[in-house]
Write a structure and sequence with these properties.
Oligomer: single chain
Mean pLDDT: 82
Shape: elongated
Strand content: 5-15%
Number of domains: 3
Number of strands: 9
Radius of gyration: 33 Å
Distance between the termini: 31 Å
Largest sheet: 5 strands, mixed
Low-confidence stretches: none
Strand order of the largest sheet: 4-6-7-9-8
């Protein structure tokens, strides 16, 4: 167990001990209304009820259509929140006490327990894609404690967990650990965190007696839960969009791999058909060479043999390049760059300052280099550069690919690695995204771009 988690659990345990020693304060005896909402606060609270109900119905409908558990758990968490507010208002706030007429301390405690249980389930499902096993274990422990507390409540008509430990404490523990453990945070994650922090802050103020201290009677808690409904609904929608975009990108990658595999098969067939004629020509030239005594003719035959060997090696290089192999091996960066240049069929200057080797998928690396080269080639053609120049500089541990195509506009500089983004007509906008994915996710490196009025430089760092 991490030191930070031990400290947090120690504080919670200390709070539990203090609460147990002051247990009488946690058993409510009077169920008469304490506060009265005037006309405007009553209307505001009613609107907040409507927002929470709408969020619940919306997410239940989404669950029915797309069968996503996070929508189900979030809808149940919202319904539990609604149930909690109804019980809270029935006990302490007029005129809701006469409207709802529940006045049940047992239901009030059960509503808190259900709100904690379904909120924890929702957070666990929401954070599923962030791959934090430690966090999932913590959430499971809290879920088990909720189930034990529910069983205790059904037997003894009182909860223990929610009575002595306010429900915002376990939620705070989960969220604080999520923020500490998750490295790659995105916008949906921050929506989740800040939406819940808003609730936790308001609940904590209510817990320490904000109304008693200030004398302000207003449905702050209702407003906060309504805002949380909107913020978390936005987080779910945003995350769903990101997952759909990722799914579409994966489908595009699979399609490209399929195309590469088809090209590899076609080239393999061509190589098979060419191999026999090339061998026949090679043997024929050897036979002619034996019966020939003229030095000039012998040199011509030697040159012809070299051309045949070059043709055979070229077709073999193409076949290997378009073979979608996932095998990882130690490969030479210089040779990999040379292979990519051969396939590109354009003039690229290769400079070696300090060569190095790397353990990874050579085939994927070559395809990443080729994508960048082709991108530079298209830019020089589109802008009609008179003397196009593309240079690859290998200087351990970096590979820099530079062109003189006039650079990338500043407004596009932060978008060029996004999937489906392209300023070229007829382009699918996936090439540079694939290069960045291969370099950073598959090889653990870094791909950046620098650009000015003269040209662009794509810098690959392989640690």
């Amino acid at each position: 167990m991490d030191k930070a988690l031990k400290i947090k659990l120690g504080i919670i345990f200390l709070l539990l001990i203090i609460s147990i020693f002051n247990y009488e304060q946690h058993f409510i005896k009077n169920t008469d209304a304490i506060y009265t909402f005037s006309h405007i606060p009553f209307m505001v609270a009613s609107i907040c009820f409507g927002v929470i109900i709408s969020a619940s119905v919306y997410n239940l409908a989404l669950f029915v259509y797309i069968r996503s558990l996070q929508h189900l758990y979030y809808a149940l968490a919202q319904l539990s929140t609604l149930f909690f507010l109804i019980n809270l208002d029935s006990l302490f706030i007029a005129p809701f006490d006469e409207i709802f007429k529940l006045k049940s301390l047992f239901l009030f405690e059960i509503s808190q327990l259900l709100m904690l249980f379904f909120s924890a389930l929702f957070i666990q499902e929401f954070l599923q894609t962030y791959q934090t096993s430690k966090l999932h274990r913590l959430i499971r422990i809290i879920l088990y404690l909720c189930l034990v507390d529910l069983l205790f409540a059904l037997i003894f008509s009182h909860t223990i967990l929610t009575k002595f430990i306010p429900i915002f404490i376990p939620i705070w523990l989960i969220l604080s650990e999520a923020r500490r453990l998750i490295k790659d945070k995105d916008k949906p994650f921050y929506f989740l965190i800040y939406g819940w922090y808003l609730v936790l802050f308001t609940v904590a103020l209510e817990y320490v007696g904000f109304v008693k201290i200030t004398g302000i009677v207003f449905p702050f808690l209702h407003i906060t839960f309504a805002l949380e409904s909107l913020i978390l609904s936005l987080a779910i929608s945003y995350k769903f969009k990101l997952l759909e975009d990722e799914k579409r990108v994966q489908q595009t990658l699979l399609l490209q791999q399929s195309r590469l595999a088809s090209m590899g098969e076609m080239i393999a067939i061509i190589a098979h058909q060419w191999r026999q004629p090339l061998n026949f020509l090679s043997f024929s030239l050897m036979h002619i060479k034996k019966s020939c005594k003229d030095d000039t003719t012998k040199q011509t035959i030697k040159d012809a043999n070299l051309k045949l060997q070059y043709m055979s090696k070229t077709i073999e290089d193409f076949r290997n390049f378009y073979n979608p192999s996932k095998t990882k091996e130690e490969f030479d960066i210089k040779i990999a760059c040379q292979n990519a240049i051969k396939i590109s069929s354009i003039s690229v200057e290769l400079k070696i300052k300090e060569n190095f080797t790397f353990f990874g998928n050579k085939n994927e690396f070559e395809q990443a280099i080729l994508n960048i080269i082709n991108n530079a080639k298209d830019a020089t053609k589109e802008r009609k550069i008179e003397n196009p120049k593309i240079t690859i500089l290998v200087d351990s541990p970096t590979i820099t690919i530079t062109d003189n195509a006039g650079g990338i506009e500043k407004k596009y500089l932060n978008k060029i690695f996004e999937p489906y983004f392209s300023t070229k007509k007829g382009s699918d906008g996936i090439g540079l995204y694939i290069s960045k994915t291969v370099i950073e996710k598959e090889m653990g490196g870094k791909l950046d771009v620098k650009s000015n009025k003269d040209g662009s430089s794509f810098i690959i760092l392989l640690k």
